[in-house]
Each structure stands twice: as structure tokens, then as C-alpha cells.
Design goal:
The structure holds 2 protein chains of 2 kinds. Chain A is mainly α. Helices cover 84% and strands 0% of the residues of chain A. By secondary structure, chain B is mainly alpha-helical. Classes of the chains: A mainly alpha, B mainly alpha.
């Protein structure tokens, strides 16, 4: 009877320790490893598909560029809620994704969608402090530097 | 005193066991749900390193480019990856193969260089 009591106390103490340790383990793995790796992965994934979209947009098929840009926008949206690396450059990149989508939709004969994308681009870029976020200026920037380092040239303005 | 110490030890052991189990379960769920994101966290680095080594004419460039190419090729043939992402991977396969072709040509392996170039052309043609 005494041994039984000792064993149950032994397991009770272990259980108390485990109950205290479980949330700590979850927190540490989530905070110290998962959040950082996820943020890095999302940034790389977005940059990868964005680079592909820009190459398709410039050299090949705008339809494929559209698919890739929509994919990139989805990753951006997901990043805003989950990633710790969702900051100014990512938001700016999202703005330019919308601007490029607007041009693609316009050339595909979808003016409503094009206007919608352009207004989203203007809103984001204005929020980020682009001095002239007019449609004319955005179009001009897209035409002048249609390459992957477009962001840098915009930052310098 | 000894009894107190034993009790405290049991709680500490339980704490570590609970922490390990919690951490493992969290990581397991993350690895299951975010396979692609995890892959990109590391391949982004591999790609940057291999291309940088290629640009600097490093002797390790060939091996690094080949490792990255192998990973991308696996992604292209995976059924779990989005078609748009597959195209992006294929385009990058083409670019890596073109770089490998240049390196093989410089090493005097003309047949290998030609083979890589043909594959690069196929991949880049496939994505437009």
C-alpha cells in the first residue's frame, strides 16, 4: 500500500514537471526556431516566385507572369499575418506586384481589375511614403526599370 | 532534506521531458504543414551561395550549383508543389544548368557542357 502511494506520488511529481515544461518547450521551439525559419522561408519563396514573374513579364509570357504575381501576392498576405520579417521592403514589394498585375490586366483587356490593382498599389506605396504615388508616376517607374532591382531604384527616389 | 531533493529532481526531470515533448510535437506539426516554406528557407541560402561562388570563380562552384540543381529538380518532379512554383523552379534549373555548362566547358568537358546546355535550353523553352 505504501509502495503504491510512493509510485503514484512519483508519477504525480513527474506529471507536474511535464505540465510545466510542455508550454515552455512549445514556446521555445516556436519562438526561437520555427518563427525565424518560417519568416526566412516565406521571404525566399516570395523572392523566388517574384523573380520568375518579372522574367516572364519582361521576356516571355505575361499570362504566366500574372499567375506568378498572384502567387507572390498570396505569400505576401500570408506573411503579413505570420512572418516576423514582414516589414517595409516586403510591403513595398507587394505594392509593385499589384502595379505589375495592373499593367498585365490592362493589356489583357480587363480595365476594372486593372484599376482595382492599381488603386491597391497606389494605396500601399503612398502608405510607405512614395512621394508621387500617382498612376502616371507608377507606370513611368515600371517602364523605366522593368528589372528585378526596381525596388532599389524606387528607394533612391 | 533528501526527500525534498528527490521530489524537486522529479519535477525538474518532468519539466525537461514535457519541454522536449512539447517542442517535438510543435516542430513535427510545423514540418508537416510548412514543407515548402522550410525547403525555401535553406535553398534560398544554397542558391545565393552557389551563384556567388560561380561569380567569384570558386573551385567549389560546380559542386554547389549541382547540389542546388538536384534540389530544384526534385521540386519540379514533386506532385505536392504548386504548378506556378514548378515553373519558377524549372526556370531556375535552366539558369543553373547554363552556369554548369559554362563551368564544364572551362574544365574541358565538352560533352558534359553540351549536355547541360541542351537541358538548359529545354527547361527555359518549357517556361517560355
Amino acid at each position: 500500500m505504501l509502495t503504491m502511494k510512493r509510485v503514484s506520488r512519483f508519477f504525480a511529481l513527474l506529471l507536474v514537471g511535464a505540465a510545466l515544461g510542455l508550454p515552455v518547450g512549445i514556446y521555445l521551439v516556436q519562438r526561437k526556431f520555427i518563427d525565424k525559419e518560417k519568416a526566412l522561408g516565406m521571404v525566399n519563396e516570395e523572392a523566388f516566385v517574384d523573380d520568375y514573374a518579372k522574367k516572364e513579364f519582361i521576356y516571355a509570357d505575361p499570362q504566366r507572369a500574372r499567375e506568378a504575381l498572384i502567387y507572390a501576392v498570396e505569400i505576401h498576405k500570408e506573411m503579413q499575418g505570420k512572418s516576423t520579417l514582414s516589414g517595409w521592403p516586403e510591403k513595398s514589394d507587394l505594392g509593385w506586384c499589384y502595379a505589375e498585375l495592373s499593367l498585365i490586366e490592362e493589356s489583357a483587356g480587363n480595365p476594372t481589375l486593372a484599376r482595382d490593382y492599381m488603386s491597391q498599389a497606389q494605396h500601399i506605396l503612398k502608405e510607405l511614403g512614395l512621394k508621387d504615388s500617382s498612376e502616371y508616376h507608377i507606370r513611368k517607374l515600371l517602364q523605366r526599370t522593368p528589372s528585378t532591382n526596381q525596388l532599389l531604384s524606387v528607394q533612391s527616389k | 532534506m533528501k526527500k525534498r531533493f528527490l521530489q524537486a529532481s522529479l519535477v525538474v526531470i518532468g519539466f525537461f521531458v514535457g519541454g522536449t515533448v512539447g517542442g517535438y510535437l510543435t516542430f513535427h506539426r510545423y514540418a508537416r504543414d510548412y514543407g515548402l516554406v522550410r525547403a525555401f528557407a535553406w535553398t534560398g541560402i544554397f542558391n545565393a551561395v552557389s551563384v556567388s561562388q560561380y561569380n567569384e570563380n570558386s573551385k567549389d562552384a560546380k559542386q554547389e550549383l549541382f547540389s542546388t540543381l538536384t534540389f530544384y529538380t526534385q521540386g519540379v518532379s514533386s506532385s505536392a508543389i504548386d504548378p506556378t512554383m514548378k515553373k519558377a523552379l524549372r526556370m531556375n534549373c535552366g539558369l543553373l544548368e547554363a552556369r554548369l555548362s559554362v563551368l564544364e566547358n572551362e574544365s574541358g568537358n565538352v560533352d558534359e557542357a553540351k549536355s547541360y546546355l541542351v537541358r538548359a535550353q529545354e527547361d527555359l523553352k518549357a517556361v517560355g
